[in-house]
Amino acid sequence: MREVLILLAVVGLLIALLSPNILAMRESARIQQCEQNMKRLGTALYSYHDTHRCLPPAAIWGTQDMHSLALNASKQLDIFTRANWVLLLLPHLDKTELANSFDYNLPVAHEQNLQVRNSPLSLMRCPSDTYNSSENMHQFASADDSTIHFARGNYAINGGTHTGKIGYGSTASPSGDYSHLLIDQDSRKFQYWGNGVAGFNKTFSFGDLYNGRATLVALEEIRAGIHPIDPRGVWSWGHIGSSVTWAHGVNGDDYGPNNPWARSDDFIGCGKLHDILGVEKLVEEKMACVSYVDVNTQATSRSQHDGGVNVLFLDGTVKFISDKIDPGVWHVIHSRETPADILASDFDEHLNTVNELEDASEVNHASISEKPEQAPSDFLNSTDMKFVLIPKGSFIMGLPDDGNDYDLPPESPQHTVQITHPFYLGAYEVTQGDYEKIMGINPAFHQSTSEDTTSFPVEQVTWNDANEFCRRLSNTPTEKNAKRTYRLPTEAEWEYACRAGSEQPYAFSSVKSMDDTSGEAAGKTHPLPITKVGSYAPNAFGLYDMRGNVWEWCSDWFDRDYYSRSPLRDPQGPKHGYLKVVRGCDWIYVGEGCKINYPITVPWKHNPFIGFRIVCEMRRE
């Protein structure tokens, strides 16, 4: 008996020791199967492109049966949703029989397409997803109260990491990477697309992609919804979250894989999901969503793997991406507009970047003489640009506006900053006339044949353009002889100059009063038009349009949690990055209830509401 007990104990110990290894081996096999599925889908994408000279759209949305063409805001999904990218790939996946049984002229939800949409596709299933099963088919409630069932799926096409906002914004708030919407009532045309590889009724060819195929995401994992009414992870359903990832970059609050934020994914029906499961369950399952946004707006990549997701790049390679990937890297690997050279070298190092903890090198603050009191309070340079002396001092950076100090992001805390040197900052935003004098062109969107816009701020310039303007101005013979050089301000310098010595929260209101003549536009419900610089009164430092007219590029790379580790003295921003800071008011989240970084922009893109002003540095003898 004793020997039996010993033997059982030994066997139990061996099982305990081997169980983690067995589980790890099983998960490894599941991940490999998932990778193989994605590679087959990647091969089919190439075959489709060879046949059609373009990649498939995210989905085809029909307009013929719809009165309103605002399909992106409609809840009548069963009426207008036709074939999505997976259904279009069926003939290229050796699924000819299934493709032949699908009527591409009818909506997916039509009775004649029941067999196809109910068919579980092993190719569209990642074995790690415990919710992808026939017992958990998606149930869509149509307008006539009928229930339409769909089989689950685990792969989505990359719709992009743009913001969910449509269009480039306004003086209230420009949008960095934004979504595009085309509606033409006369031709009954509808298109909806972002910066990814596929849009709704919108296709892209390889020739449309600036990003390299080895560095651009084509497909990525998504999870099957955790309740039948959860529409996420449905292989034949051409919608955001179902078979398309969308708006999950830096310009939103759903950035990165497996985003844990309690209000991350936005889709139709999340409110009912909250009623049934509760927010705690959704967060626990890492499948959170916004209860009060009942529209398909954003959805990120998700999986049940430990610590990350699989993504398929357009060259056919599959890589496992950590949940801790730098949000900027995540943003640009999903954008077809990312210049190929940005990610071409040391790509795996980019993917392994978690966070940039090193600061940029401090600039040479040799702009003012050893006796600041002898420096002029302002001056004009050789091109008649006026510069104002900004005194050194300290301030609370990130101080929330009065009345909007709730639900503050913990990664962007208010913090004391010291500006240890006085500096000269442009009294005005760089004008169209200033820009044309130095660069020889006027790229501004806000030009007119009936009005002289020379004194309007220049916009539609990239960060790279603004930086080049500083370089060329610094190299003009007159400025070189005067030993003056120019640069963009740091974000800390910009906010310090905007607050103009105030230590109090700014009394912000989203609605302008009838007697408001300040010219303030940032965060306002009704934005002001672009106008001549200096049309309104300056702030206490003598600076114009710090809260109005165009928003402005700063020198810093963007990192959402930089405020939490910013140095006390003269912060320069992170040493490396992928998007640049854009500011338009005293607080980076001005007017935002959800505290989202909408204006942050990659340095190679321009916007009709983003311009710049510059710092002048005077070299000592």
Task: Walk me through the topology.
Elements (H helix, E strand, L loop, with lengths): L1 H51 L6 E3 L15 H4 E4 H5 L6 H5 L13 H4 L20 E4 L5 E4 L4 E4 L21 E5 L4 E5 L23 E5 L22 E2 L24 H8 L1 H6 L23 E6 L4 E5 L4 H7 L6 H4 L3 H5 L26 E3 L5 E5 L2 E5 L17 E5 L3 E4 L5 H8 L23 H12 L2 H5 L2 E4 L3 H9 L51 E7 L22 E4 L26 E2 L3 E4 L3
Parallel strand pairs: 5-9, 18-20
Antiparallel strand pairs: 1-2, 3-4, 5-8, 6-7, 8-10, 10-11, 12-13, 13-16, 14-15, 16-21, 17-21, 18-19
Describe the structure.
The chain has 621 residues and is α+β, with helices and mostly antiparallel strands. 21% of the residues lie in helices and 14% in strands. Strands 9-5-8-10-11 form a five-stranded mixed sheet. Strand 12 and strand 13 form a beta hairpin. The model has no long low-confidence stretch (mean pLDDT 93).
Radius of gyration: 27 Å
- Shape descriptor: globular
Q: How is the largest sheet built, in terms of strand order?
A: 9-5-8-10-11
Number of helices: 14
The overall pLDDT average reads 93
How large a portion of the residues is in β-strands, by DSSP E?
5-15%
Largest β-sheet summary: 5 strands, mixed
The SS-based structural class is alpha+beta
Number of strands: 21
Distance between the termini: 96 Å
Helix content: 10-25%
Low-confidence stretches: none
